[in-house]
Amino acid sequence: MIIRFVLLFIIVAMLLWLVKRMFGKDPVTDEIEHQDASNSEDMRQCKFCGIHVPESSIVTSNDNPYCCQEHADSDQQ
Ligand SMILES: [Zn+2]
Fold it and tell me: Distance, CA 51 to ligand 1 centroid (Å)?
């Protein structure tokens, strides 16, 4: 009698695992996809120090790209 109960439990657990695999999204895969999206962002080179910075965090001064406001100011002097 107890063996039947254990078998039923295993079958239910396997079904739940299968359903999770089919419909649930793996959080690790989700994170890798997110990283790929951020890596595809355009990189710009700082005119002052030459470091590569994502387009969204670039500081533009006189149409030149800089990694930070400090380098933009330093290059103007
Ligand atoms: Zn810089």
Answer: 6
Q: Name 68's Cβ contacts closer than 8 Å, sequence gap at least 6.
A: 46, 59
- Dist. CA 38 → ligand 1 center (Å): 21
Name beta bridge partners: 52: 45
pTM of the model: 0.48
Contacts of 66 (CB under 8 A, 6+ apart): 46, 47, 48, 58, 59, 60, 72, 75
Question: What is the chain's mean pLDDT, rounded?
Answer: 86
**C-alpha atoms less than 13 angstroms from C-alpha of 33 in its C-beta half-sphere:** 6
Rounded Cα distance, 14 and 4, in Å: 15
